[in-house]
Give the backbone structure.
Amino acid sequence: MPATTAQKLKIKEGYSLLTIGAPANFRTELGKLPAGVILSDKAKTFNQIHWFVQTKAQLEEELE
């Protein structure tokens, strides 16, 4: 059974994560990350996107 948020999100070794609108504590909340994982809000190539929206209006505006 997954123990950390990173495990639940199936973040693998060497992954690049694009984060959009992540809260300040996002990195801490992920827990221990596998080796070589990179978190960036500017990545051009990535394995996963973590996009944080607070309202439907924000989603619709940013989706374009």
About this structure: The longest strand covers residues 16-20. The helical segments are 5-8, 26-30, 56-63. The mean pLDDT is 94. Strands lie at 16-20, 38-40, 48-51.
